[in-house]
Model the fold of this input.
Amino acid sequence: MKSHASLAEQFNRDENRVDWHNETLWFVREKRDRQSHQVSDWEKLREVASKIKLNVLSNLDIYLMEFEKNALTNGIKVHWAKDAEEHNKIVLSILQDHQVKFMVKSKSMLTEECHLNDYLEKNGVEVTDTDLGERIVQLAKETPSHIVLPCIHKKKEEIGEIFHQYLNTPKGLSDPQMLTEIARQDLRKKFLQSQAALTGINFAVAETGEFVVCTNEGNADMGAHLAKVHIACMGLEKIIPKREHLGVFLRLLARSGTGQPITTYSSHFRKPRAGQEMHIVIVDNGRSEQLSKEKFRNSLKCIRCGACFNTCPVYRRSGGHSYHTAVAGPIGSILNPIRNIAAYKDLPFASTLCGSCTHVCPVQIDLHQQLYELRQEIIASGMGEPVKSFSMKILARSLSHVKKYEKLRRTMKFGYRYAPFLLKNNANPWYKHREMPEMPKESFKEWYQKNIGDGK
Done:
């Protein structure tokens, strides 16, 4: 059975990779800090963004209808999907109407969430991911491990091997510039062959019916401008009320995610060009239910910057694939259990609850508090690990009674002194990666009574 702990254990077998992964993501986190410190009103920006998003969540139906009305006026065809299956069917039906057999796609975590690539390929449509990181993991037959840096788990030498295997490049090639140029040449052919292009949506503006796609490679623009059919897919929470609000989110997004002042391309799409069809698919897939849960509705404010990934000590040391879902990290550990708590009951425990994710979130989502709330619900519903739940109950009883606590402490001290192997063995997960400290000769209570309690 998949669980974060067991999958993280596999990732942790390669200590050098863990160190490299941790340092690489911390480098990105430090870039984020430098960029945010250069904006004098950074905290004000976060507060404003949070309030805009809260307003959207409180009036989501109104803004969605306003967006649909304006998008239709602009000549865009709007579709609504209640879940992943309906989303996939809508996309396929659009492609079949135009007899599309080959499509290029820019990065879209929604389509990863809906497993669109597999669905289309089973139905005879070849899909090429055009974001460089996504193209690499697609060739490697893997899923993205990070929402902004999808192949951050791959070293350049491994990418060279993948290109050698699938793109016939010389063996042993690992120069990033050469690898990038090879990928560019390969993707250029795909762009020219494409009959349709699919993009994600970062922000959809209710006031104008337009949408904005942010990329660093211009791949969304290349696909959308060359293809006769442009399909854009978005979760229904991507709405913002007015165009003037874009300035707030565009200043926060790239700085939080990659430590850039702004993404290289912030492309505005308002209507199809002459001879082109433009479709927008608005997807629910559990978001309405999430909106109804007051404790967790704040997580719908997420703008998918990935800042919480880069700072999380658990994510940095366990890798994105250990979360066994499209959106990993702290925000994924909230979004996925809310939609299917039985399948993702392990994820809220993949956190130290240190609060670093909350500290860096550009829209002030109380991530660590929501993770704590989810833990309470999982334990209360009886879905916690039996051994852990039992041991926590025993510990709670002991810690809440002075006499029981003293008895437990003396027993532990005796056992640790005369039978240390009971704790120092490989069956104890805590001991596997740590050195157990020596037991002090006396407890703090004993020291206090001896030195303070007697008036010394």
Notes: Residues 403 and 409 are 10 Å apart (CA to CA).
